[in-house]
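Final report, closing paragraph on structural work. Over the funding period we assembled a curated collection of sequence-structure pairs, and we close with a single example.
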Amino acid sequence: MVELLSPVGDFECLKAAVQNGADSVYFGGSLFNARMSASNFDKSSLKESIRYAKLRNVKINFTLNTLIKDSEFEDAISIVNDVYSLGADSIIVQDIGLAKYIINNFPEIDVHASTQMTIHNLQGVLALEKLGFKRVVLARELSLSEIQYICANSNIEIESFVHGAICISYSGQCLFSSTIGGRSGNRGRCAQPCRLPYKLLDDKSNILDDGFLLSPRDLCSLEYIPDLVNAGIKCFKIEGRLKNPEYVAVVTGIYRKYIDLALSKKDYIIDENDIKRLMQVFNRGGFSNGNLADSANLNYVYKEKPNNMGLYIGNVSSYNNQKGLITFKTSESLTIGDNISLEKEEHKYTISELMSKKENISSASPNDIITIGRMKGNINLGNKIYKLSSKSLTKSLKEFYDKENIKIPLSATITIRKGIPVTLEVTSLDNDNYFSISVKKSLDISPIDSISSPISKERVIEQLSKTTNTQFEFKYISVNLDDNCYIPKISSINALRRDCLSELENIAIKRFERNHNTNLKCNFKTPSKNKSKFSGISLLLNELNPNFDYSNLHRVDRIYIPLKYFHKKDMQNILEQLSNKFNLYIYMPTIIKDNYRNIIYNNLDKYIDEFNIKGIVVSNVSNIYSLINYRDKIDIIGNYTLNIFNSHSISELSKYGLKMVTLSPELDKESLIDLNKNSNIDTELIVYGRLPIMNMGYCPIGKSNKCYPTCKTKCNSCDKFYIKDRLGYNFRLVPDNMQSVSTIYNSKITSITYDDIHSNCVRISILDENIDEINNIIDTIRENKCFTGKDFTYGNLNKIV
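Its predicted structure, as stored:
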């Protein structure tokens, strides 16, 4: 069965999702979920919400999908216990330590891997399958063919986003909001800096592009639904926990329609009116197919505007600035109370005055020439006009989801015999919560002989069928009725029906609600092992310069070299030079697509032998799974991109042979100190460098999510590129055409001291510095000093994200 999963930010959205055909919903509580700015559900409303959905056979996927600190772990487990007891079906998790704790201690509830875990290839899926996850939510950067490959070669449930907003960065690999504003996307507080305007510059300050360069169009995958069904996707996910009930209702209803159509094997034809309805409730410059196509998507980003565009309805043909009157020919219906916007204006207008031929009207039809009053602002002839919301649509949608449209089928047998109590037996006919439940109830009164008005079977059936305001519907009603019977109070049949339905609900609740897990061992500290003492400095050379003499580097204990340089013939001499003098480590990319995977693993042994490699820095869960056979030969180090936030995660990763982990640069000083105390393996701390704040499956230079033949390939030049923000800060942009992955680095250099944090090793990250500058940095770090000034930052050391 294919599952449709809808977003829920509050109880109105929950009703909208359930009543429009969602098979499951996802929402979070007041803590530890990736949409902390949504209304969400506190402890008192969780029970009502979970019961509402479950009693209508809709599954609950509870979001606990942020990174958890050691100091928060007990609170997170307490939340798990609450939703576990209330009957949630699954918990969506980003933090690997939290996930494994739930898997080990709450076996009756499924654990789903959030898209925040950046699972983007088969190896990552297989790794989580082995760890005990029930489902993986894939990264949104995957194509249909990549999804098909993963589904065909794994046994775990696969979930994929099909509609809604797309993050420009791989989810879980964006530190932009955290770095510039202290609001972490990994902690559910993203400020969405990607939706702000930027300029694309080269190193000569030439402006190559301008606008909202990091703001993708929303995904609409209606045309791909049959292919995704055939690929083996278990669950289709709609984005939108920050959206309103109108959005949830429309998008859920439309995707319900087309999933059912795809499953029916009938002709799959998309109604253009459905696209318009989707556009009406939310779009950013129209939709795109995201990353689903194998070909390059040149419409991935809409740089003109970052928020809802609404539905195009016409162009300004006349504007009276003095009277605030706009005249245009509308391509869609309009009504008093609708909201509109104009292309040059940021705010929206509510239509309060609508005229045709100088006559006031309440509504207009497509192709009418109309005038709208009370309009002021930056308005010019020819400006495009968009309808943002429809008053009548909102009203009709609310009327619909306030009713009970999803019905549980029932059969009933009622026995009405003279002199004995009336009995009603009700049996559920569904395949979920109510399956095979039978309830039998009797009245306190007994039928007697009728003098003039005997009750008929039709009247009995009519009384029993009054289930409009419930989630139930009688499909079959059998009436065993004596002749000439009279029931003193016909309304008592209504009461009997209500009693039976109430008991059905009570039994169903007992089925899905669980007892608290009283066997929990609340030992939230991982026992420390005898870790090694301070083991020196690691040097990450993000870019190798063929003009540098790296033999002049000094006082370095290990050097990390990005994997891509081992593939380049013109870098072999530099690698040999480094290998002869230093302990060399291969630095794995965060993203390894299937087309790149074979190149890596077919050559890895060769690189290890040829350059006397001492270890590998793994940057994704998939790396750990793929390199498990190397753990006895060389050191395996877990990179910060694994999002190490607590000792439980470290302990779990250490089971796979990791000798050291690089702690997350998002952590504050106190959390870093605590984590070092609780870690059972060595830790590394980043003390210097420009932090990569985004890993994108998109190239702003080529304006595409994939490389393509007609691209001008400016990325192959010797130029350097920058994204410049509104405040004048330049963020270095490094493209990589091997996988069409672009990295954005922070505008400022992180520089901190480390003595009192007590990590076993510190890392220096180098991007543009020359050899003399690198040696000076190393000497400064050796003395436990840091750099200060306008170009430097303490990062999150003194912030709490």
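Residues 491-512 form the longest helix (22 residues). The radius of gyration is 31 Å. We thank the funder for supporting this effort.
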